[in-house]
């Protein structure tokens, strides 16, 4: 497979990540990660998880009742060998909490910092850290 084909597969992978999260398709979201994915959510009020089994319950607990819209832009992907890559994605997200929640709305800007590993299933996210540049928060 060519580097250009690998690049497109990684971009499609990230598109699925955003779509599965926003449509709350949790079982499908799990398929975009390696089983041993390391996700740093310290800046988002969580910790560091070292598996899909740890990460999904955290994520579901945070946003299962929240309407979310995530956009990823301007990917910077670098290949570190045949089966390893790293990437940075500019991102923007909006979250709306249900009535009665202490938060009403968040509009955020930042970057996803990720690594990818080629597996038998194709390219998967193996590490992910979200850093934010700015947040607009509206409290209820």
From TrEMBL:
This is Unannotated protein. It comes from freshwater metagenome. The lineage of its organism: unclassified sequences, metagenomes, ecological metagenomes. Residues 3-129 form the SnoaL-like domain.
């Amino acid at each position: 497979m060519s580097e250009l084909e690998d690049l497109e597969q990684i971009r499609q992978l990230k598109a699925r990540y955003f779509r599965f999260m926003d449509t709350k398709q949790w079982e499908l979201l799990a398929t975009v990660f390696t089983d041993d994915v390391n996700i740093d959510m310290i800046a988002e009020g969580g910790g560091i998880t070292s598996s899909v089994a740890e990460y999904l319950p955290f994520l579901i607990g945070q946003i299962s009742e929240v309407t979310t819209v995530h956009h990823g832009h301007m990917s910077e992907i670098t290949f570190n060998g045949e089966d390893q890559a790293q990437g940075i994605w500019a991102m923007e997200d909006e979250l709306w909490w249900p009535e009665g929640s202490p938060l009403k709305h968040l509009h955020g800007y930042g970057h996803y910092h990720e690594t990818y590993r080629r597996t038998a299933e194709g390219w998967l996210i193996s590490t992910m850290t979200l850093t934010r540049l700015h947040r607009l928060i509206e409290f209820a």
